[in-house]
Amino acid sequence: MTTGRIVIIGAGQAGASAAMKLRALGHRGPLVMVGDETAPPYQRPPLSKKYLLGEMAMDRLLLRPEAFWAEQQIDLRLGQPVLSINRSAQEVRLGDDVLRYDTLVLATGAEPRRVPAAIGGDLPGVHVVRRVADIDALAPEMTPGRRLLVVGGGYIGLEAAAVARKLGLEVTVIEAAPRILGRVAAPETADFIRALHRRHEVEIIEGVGLDRLLGDTRLTGARLADGRQIAASLAVVGIGVEPSAGLAAAAGLPVAGGVVVDAFGRTADPAIWAAGDCTLLPFRGHQLRLESVQNAIDQAEAVAANILGAARPYHPKPWFWSDQYDLKLQIAGLNLGHDRVVIRPGPTPSHWYFAGDTLLAVDALGDARAYMIGKRLIEAGRSPDPAMLADPAMDLKSLL
Ligand SMILES: Cc1cc2nc3c(=O)[nH]c(=O)nc-3n(C[C@H](O)[C@H](O)[C@H](O)COP(=O)(O)OP(=O)(O)OC[C@H]3O[C@@H](n4cnc5c(N)ncnc54)[C@H](O)[C@@H]3O)c2cc1C
Predict the structure, then answer these.
(1) I want to staple 108 with a disulfide (CB 3.0 to 4.6 A). Which of 244, 262, 281, 369 is the partner?
(2) pTM above the 0.85 mark?
(3) Whose CA is nearest to atom 4 of ligand 1?
(4) If you measure from the C-alpha of residue 383 to the centroid of ligand 1, how many angstroms do you get, rounded to a whole number?
């Protein structure tokens, strides 16, 4: 199979992982990676954690030292958005430049949803958390005593809330859904995280949407759907992301809330592959998106191998983590389709999701061992007896 000239659009986690794997697996041909951000490929998870807190410098965010890309003969073009794909000519357009490709990889990630400008979303003081430039704008505003409104009780908003408390801000989180973490975690996990934030004096308001953000020249607060008003001079909006699939859609590729790929990471066009947050991929009989570092790396590496002819389907082994205050929440598996949650009680509990007798996922709330054992069981397709799991006296190791 000839792979020729490979162009990767997006220089984030998935793009970088694909590029590195292509070189590691022996692709010696031209390899171009185009990114619209100016920073070389970097990891995003610390953005809402240590980088926002000021405990991690930019050079430690980088996935590889800056010189690495040239050493690997990866032609990294930064600060240049790809504007369009011409599939019949096998070309992509960046400003005045046109790049020919034999193989194209879409690794365009996702964009944060914003509060519409019509209800105050463009007021100074309103921030999103996706790019390092977002944090460089937000961090100087996180000064003690200010009032921060977090719109959205998902992981990103809750991590920002935890950092803000550590920095001495007053924090209110509003969540339109009946509870925080509604999309991703069981009520038991949400209860634990809510209690943690309340112990740190974060006000959490659930089941009430935002009516509008208030202010003339700058954010001064918010009015909620029930008429309540909240004062705030700063807001972090964490209401999820939209996959960056516009280029693919404009090029006529199937897009359905993500660039549709098969188990090999290939789109409907055999010359075009995709990986990471922008993709809609098959998993356990569903088509879904996985927004995680694990998926960005593993899917991109599978795509690299498949471009070079491996013909190996990618089977996601989801895992995820979130740091809030001193808690490390670790999640193995995906709880999609669970019908019950088995609680393993204790100061660092774990919540085990089952569909019938099949273990699907575990949320380990500060218990690294439960996470590791749960992950191994799920990956091996083994399901422990729920009654044993619920017994805190039972040594989890005996399940392996
Ligand atoms: C604040 C934050 C915290 C997170 N925490 C965790 C965590 O704790 N654990 C975890 O597993 N995951 C976490 N994630 C998710 C994880 O970072 C993403 O799943 C991962 O970065 C996805 O990689 P990606 O390469 O698909 O997308 P991205 O990393 O977003 O990279 C895509 C890149 O493509 C660029 N691009 C888009 N369109 C174009 C174009 N037309 N031309 C050129 N370039 C383009 C984008 O600007 C971006 O640089 C977090 C994400 C954020 C934002």
Answers:
(1) 244
(2) yes
(3) 45
(4) 33
